[in-house]
Known about the structure:
heterodimer, A: Rossmann fold, CATH 2.40.50.100, B: MetI-like fold
Amino acid sequence: MAAPRRAAVRPKADRMQSFIHFESVSKNFGAAKVVDELDFHVGKEEFVSLLGPSGSGKTTLLMMLAGFERPSSGAIHLDGRRIEHLPPYKREMGVVFQNYALFPHMTIAENVAFPLKMRGVGAAERESRTLKALELVQLAHLRERKPSQLSGGQQQRIALSRALVYEPKVVLMDEPLSALDKQLREHMQLEIRELHRKLGLTVIFVTHDQSEALTMSDRIAVLNHGKIEQFDTPTGLYDRPRTRFVAEFIGETNLLPGTVESSRDGEKTIRMADGTGLTCRDASDFSPGASVMVSVRPEMMHVAGAAGENRIEATLDDCVYHGDHVRLHMHRGDIRLVAKAHRRDAQAAMGGAVGVSFRSDECTLVAP
Amino acid sequence: MIRQRLNACLLVAPLVVFLGLFFIWPLWAMLVTSVQGGTVRETFPQTAIALADWDGAGEPPAAAGDAIVADLRLEVPTERFGDSVRTLNSQYPGFRTLLPRTARAVREAPAGEKVDLAGIDPRWTDRALWLVMKRAMPAYTDANLLAALDLRRDDAGAIAAVPPEMAVNRATMTRTFVISAQVTLLCIAIGLPFAMITASLTGWKRNLLLVAVLLPLWTSLLVRTASWMILLQDNGLINQALLGLGIIDRPLALIYNRAGVLIAMTHVLLPFMVLPIYASLLAIPKNLLPAAAALGARPWQSFLHVLLPLAMPGLLAGSLLVFMVALGYYITPALTGGAGDQMISSVIAFYAIGTANWGMAGALGLFLLIPTTALYLVYGRLSKPAGAA
């Protein structure tokens, strides 16, 4: 699991006014409700990822923003102006497509100059701005080539440069890195972050890769079945998932089912079916009697020492070596548990029964 | 290894034999025929030899007279004889009466006896007549090629234009190219939008449109042309419908003129335009047009800057196909056109079938083949960069 860097540093959205506003937007394809009454804001210069499994409506959302789909109901506002009725070419957005969508019959320079040419920018200015945009992605030396002569990563950067050349208000990216190999993808993630910061772009980034979303975004909207499960910062999503879907989709988690016994000052006592009592201090507001799941991240599960208030016994099934850490696969009844532990701590766990503990402020309650 | 290679050769052998027999050999034969001396030489072989050494300046050699008598004694097919007479007559009016008369006289004379040609007809003493004879029977000649371009050699041997009333080939040739170009443009005008619509549809709608294109292709050309003759007549379906609707008050002249030729040929050739364009449109990645729109291109800009350039290979291939096929059309113009709409193929058919003048037919065919080949080479050159990209 990629650690959420930069996490708490940029909760910018609340500081900024709404730049993009989806106002109870729905989209139906026939009987299927692909986007269901969505309502959310994106701030200026914010980097927001739309994250979800395929079919969650994230691409439809992007297509509505770009102008390729009309909402069935609701309104989309950009900078205070309603845009849902505008055709794509009037929306002034830069779009980076999944497979780059470079024009194969044009050179790289012509590709990048295309948006300027469409806007009637004069030849001289076009040339200088194209060059600048190409220098932004460090590929000015390839400007006379054809797209087919470039590698995937280079094509990706050209697509980016083409989307940025006319300084659009918003840059939309539809899984732009999915076709690249892992190393190149990670490099490009940093490069896109860098451009975002340097140019002060507002970016809407669609992805199904949760680690990519965590790495890059200021905030992430987790979508499922056309609804937003949670719209939060990467840290918020990872540390305080509000639904089971988010807990399982972002990273990895252990889920311990139980019933809320009491709730006092945010501190809840949960009784598991076998009688084990757990304490959890989080922001959720489950009332006593509600059945819940206690979500604990594998790296918050401690196998050595008494690091937390909550302690459960489990049986060790396997211990898998991962170099910098070991993964302990355990079960307790029919609940499967995973813990990420330091190699040194793992020694203590050998031998069947393991006692694992976690802190009450490092777990979250979600609805089952 | 050698066995494998032999097998491979055997595999392509039928193709090679077929191409050789039905493509290369006929082409070569056509070329050769168009420059050969032709029927006059075949009809008068001994005269040809006798006249070969004559420079045309002085008196014709005495042996020539004997040679022509000997040639006239031979049995030749009447068709070939008639053709030779026609050829000679076209250069020296009078051969039409002179040769049959002489032939009759020669054949009536007892074998082996010397025949006095001047006694049969005084024209045999005319040096110009012998000169025409000599010119009409060279081993190789450019007469057919020149005639195909409405040119001929005058008495001095210089190239000159034929009298205007006989100069029809150039006009017909020009008309052939103009009609072919018009048909090609019409096919683009109809075929490009049609292919674009077809490529944008899916499922049964796309199949329906494709069948609509292909169905005429599976119907006999003659049937399609005949159908147009029925539809386009003065009291045909179209005129009756327009009259009935009160849009026109007298029938439009839709057939036996240029309009009829263009309508029928465009219909017949449309599939050759639609299918290549359709194929090239399908090859365009689906996200390019949305990308163009997202980058600020209005629909017409997307069409002009993205769709059209990418469909160009198909458009060129289709245009070339339509143009080249149109150049060779003659049934359709013959049936749906007027006298002023006949294409060069009709003339070729006339020479080949009507008068058995294969040299002339070959020469005209050659002038049809040259531009076609040139066009094909240009197309190959044009489409290469696109193919490499």
